[in-house]
Amino acid sequence: MPKPSVAPAATGITSILNESRVFKPSKDFAERAHIKSLAAYKKLYAESIKDPEKFWGRLANQELVWFTPFKKVLQWKEPVAKWFVGGRTNVAVNCLDRWLDTPIANKAALIWEGEPASDGRPGEERILTYKQLHREVCRFANVLKRHGVGKGDRVLIYLPLVPEAAIAMLACARIGAVHSVVFGGFSAQSVADRIADCGAKLVVTADGGYRRGAIVQLKKNVDDALNLRDAQGKALAASATAVIVLRRCYNDIHMQEGRDFWWHRELEYVTADCPPAKLESEAPLFILYTSGSTGKPKGIFHTTAGYLLGTKLTSRYVFDLKPEDVYWCTADVGWVTGHSYLVYGPLANGATSLMYEGAPNWPEPDRFWRIVEKFGVTILYTAPTAIRAFMKWGDEWPKKHNLRSLRLLGSVGEPINPEAWMWYHEVIGGGRCPIVDTWWQTETGAIMISPLPGVTPLKPGSATLPFFGIQPEVVDEQGVEVPRNAGGKLIIRKPWPSMLRGVWGDPERFKQTYWTEVPHTYFTGDGCRQDQDGYFWIVGRIDDVLNVAGHRIGTAEVESALVSHPSVAEAAVVGRPDELKGQALVAFVTLKSGIHAKPELRDELRQHVAKEIGPVAKPDDIRFAEGLPKTRSGKIMRRLLKQVAAGVEVKGDTTTLEDFNVLTRLAQASE
Ligand code: WT7
């Protein structure tokens, strides 16, 4: 790695990762891409920023099917945005009906691969064409209607990653109900809290879901959720009066007469004729809960037309989606990535979207590569945490399969360390696939900063440049843009169509969290640096930025340095209060298979970090661990690691933790 440069900034955020490799797009890719040159991108970008309303208005007319055309592009009364005012449309119509009289009608909308059986027998496979998916969505929408669900009612979806999850989402969209998908790995308590927060009327679940050969008791969790009571003895989830149950695992469950109904039985009472609701542009489409700095779940909500436009355009241009692509986003529908880039974005483009139900290492660590080969996947969109796991499992697994169908790779969820980027590029992409490192958030609805493949020269670890119509800036405490190469807070200057419209039921929290930190702009919560070429380098959440002896250091950068050591599989760095330095850096490190945690290795790693990014970033303490505490979406739970590092009892919400035992082992290892 090149020599680090430590650039102090107005905010005191110091960005010390300096990666100088540049990968130019190949001519071949560029010639065939939707957008063919950097000049074309720059021209369109400049146009979009000069007059965003004109730009978005033109695209909304061109790209979306409207029942009633909109009268005004944007009505902005900070922090409340109304896009495409006066227009009426429907997301399900834009994703399905519009393809019915075209050659796309009989192409695969969804390709689904089920989890393989525990004895290694292949999983089930289902393919739904646009016509079939449309029919299933209409039928299920009629089921919802039969149960009294209508426009504006909330529906909680708690399903495994099966086609019915997409069907249920689109069915809600069709009738104007608001869905809130809760990831199947969440507990009964989380389900109850979310039902209570949004007042969901109906729950859609399954008897069970498969997870590494075991059955996750989804229906049982819903039963428990509906029985939970608050301190006053009142049922927490009292608003939910009906439960539709999909039969997936045939496990033994309890069906409560009058409340619980089998999905397949309900279909017997309905037809496939369901006229779509003509919804206002700003009709809420979904609520998705995300963790905030407090324990209370934060219901981020998105609306109809703007969200659809944002996901449609970014899907097409960032993934360069073509009719012949087999596109695979590995996220679960329980996360925003699953909403925007597994369901809505691809379907709005008439693309083929692949869904895989299971884990990447079940039954063996080549599961993903097997699927890529089997279906001839052309575009793969996954997360750095998965990529690092694959690196750890070894190159032999991808090498067993023919991955030549791949033409484009994507990354999302956290900064990708250059080491993982290079591995992804070489071992998975065979050196020929561009990587789109896409920066965005649940709140932004769609990708905000990302390379365009075939266009943007790539720098490993940088999300590069903004998407059309998006104006990100790196600013100081006063909201003033900092000079190039200085660190600061990442903000977005102007409203954009797919932005969140609020925190469900809590406008004050919406204002406080996003619109007060830097006046009159949207605050992302991320630290960032823009380099001399204007490329954005995300340093991580501001919360994860530590002040060590007067230097603010992004933990992600230290982690990246640690992971570039040949022995290290994964690393998480947190702060521990320190009398001398303010904060000391504590690194939790997991080693690659076959490497032993020898005491000398600690010193070696500290020296390695010092060499990579300077002595200021040298961890004070390195703790070897078998595993790190993660949420089920793979985010390291730093809050918990901080408590372990500080040697205090681990307290607070641990319900989103994937494997609780990890904590016990970590605490023991530290003694
Ligand atoms: C946070 C948002 C976006 C869908 C999945 C996560 C981090 C996300 C990147 C990236 C660096 C990234 C940011 C952001 N993040 N993508 N490409 N490079 N950081 O959604 O749970 O709402 O998390 O994830 O810190 O703020 P989310």
Strand order within the widest sheet?
Answer: 6-5-18-17-19-20-21
From the helix content, strand content and strand pairing, which structural class follows? alpha/beta
Provide the list of bound ligands, each named once. 5'-O-[(S)-butoxy(hydroxy)phosphoryl]adenosine
CATH-assigned fold name of the domain at 543-670: GMP Synthetase, Chain A, domain 3
Query: What's the overall geometry?
Result: globular
Uncertain runs are: 1-10
How many alpha or pi helices?
20
| N-to-C span | 35 Å
* Largest sheet composition: 7 strands, mixed
Structure, explained:
The protein has 671 residues and is an alpha/beta fold. The protein has a domain at 543-670: ANL, C-terminal domain (GMP Synthetase, Chain A, domain 3), CATH 3.30.300.30. It is 30% helix and 22% strand. It has a seven-stranded mixed beta sheet, with helices on both faces. It is globular, with a radius of gyration of 24 Å. The model is unreliable at 1-10 (pLDDT under 50).
